[in-house]
Write a structure and sequence with these properties.
Elements lengths: L11 H20 L13 E5 L4 H12 L3 E6 L2 H15 L4 E5 L5 H14 L5 E4 L17 H23 L3 E6 L22 H22 L5 E7 L13 H14 L3 H4 L1 H8 L10 E3 L2 E2 L9 H15 L9
Parallel strand pairs: 1-2, 1-4, 2-3, 4-5, 5-6, 6-7
Antiparallel strand pairs: 7-8
């Protein structure tokens, strides 16, 4: 009878590989930022997009625990209702509001934003957290690249419509959740919807780069208003962003992330830090990672590119004069 040798278990390459994975896990835990500030948000209104799962859920829960009025802007309302009950049970804060949005439709973005403006007299924090990793090379009902619209054009329009209320609520903050993948971007500014690629990783990177460029340009436009605008990366986190990706890729990827990288609570720490920390109350136009300032790509720092992307975005979403508040 054939017996498999187990010598490989003690082989140098296997021992080195295991040692390397353990060292990486320890390094990740050591460098992962954790925000421990106890600031209260009583009397403040916070909007979190994509708040029914992952980083958005954990951030919304944290804001609720600080006493904020939390507006959860979500696509899946059935799931949002379930999550709302969890947040109320865990924080004893009943001031939680649900709003429906679908960033794949600019019509619903406008409807959601206008509904919020009719009902709210202040917006102190806007966390643009919602995002997807799918939709490249597919057109939305608005004729735009679906991935770029979900991750950039939709949030761009949403933010602009709410901006007047955010300005009147100053001091206030706007945060865009981006990604280190923005460093893989290859933007083609000659393309009207910034989607000139069939590479899904590059397309995702393009959308995340636009999150940063948008934040930087808006920060410049709002200087002196009391509104700060920044961007951040949560790191590589186990969330539902890959929910629409084929299982043969999603399942092993999520397994590796679960073992070695961040969970949603850990991934939410930089979002929480950037939204509430008094240390950065006056910091604007910057990028954060692991609860501290970090560096972006050179493209993300280029003011001429951010202005071009802003103009293209205005045209892509058909930004009306009544929706401009800068």
């Amino acid at each position: 009878m054939y017996e498999m040798s187990m010598d490989w278990v003690t082989s140098p390459w296997f021992v080195s590989a295991i040692g390397g994975m353990v060292a990486f896990k320890v390094w990740m835990k050591y460098t992962t930022g954790k925000y421990e500030g106890q600031e209260r948000l009583t009397g403040k209104t916070v909007i979190v997009t994509g708040a029914n799962s992952g980083v958005g859920l954990e951030a919304a829960k944290d804001f609720a625990s600080r006493g904020a009025r939390v507006i959860m802007v979500c696509r899946d309302m059935k799931k949002a209702e379930f999550v709302k009950k969890i947040i109320i049970n865990e924080t004893a804060n009943t001031d939680i509001v649900l709003k429906h949005i679908n960033f794949e439709s600019l019509t619903t973005v406008r409807e959601c934003a206008q509904e919020i403006l009719r009902e709210e007299n202040q917006i102190n924090i806007l966390l643009n957290n919602a995002g997807t990793a799918t939709g490249c090379c597919t057109k939305s009902e608005d004729g735009l690249d679906l991935l770029m619209q979900s991750n950039h054009f939709g949030p761009f329009l949403f933010t602009n419509i709410l901006l007047g209320c955010i300005k009147s609520s100053a001091p206030s903050r706007i945060l865009n959740v981006s990604s280190e993948v923005h460093k893989m971007a290859k933007l083609n500014l000659a393309c009207s919807d910034l989607s000139d690629t069939k590479n899904s990783s590059v397309a995702y990177g393009n959308s995340k780069l636009c999150n940063i460029l948008m934040a930087n340009e808006l920060a410049d436009k709002l200087k002196g208003t009391g509104v700060t605008v920044n961007s951040l990366t949560p790191g590589v986190v186990l969330t539902e962003i890959l929910r629409d990706v084929t299982p043969w890729f999603r399942i092993p990827w999520n397994f590796l992330i679960k073992i070695f990288l961040k969970n949603s609570k850990e991934g939410a720490q930089t979002s929480i830090f950037a939204c509430v920390s008094p240390e950065i109350a006056d910091v604007t136009g910057r990028y954060f990672m692991d609860c501290k300032l970090s560096n972006t790509s050179e493209t993300a720092k280029d003011n001429s590119i951010s202005k071009k992307v802003w103009k293209l975005s205005e045209e892509a979403v058909g930004l009306k004069q009544s929706e401009k508040h800068y």
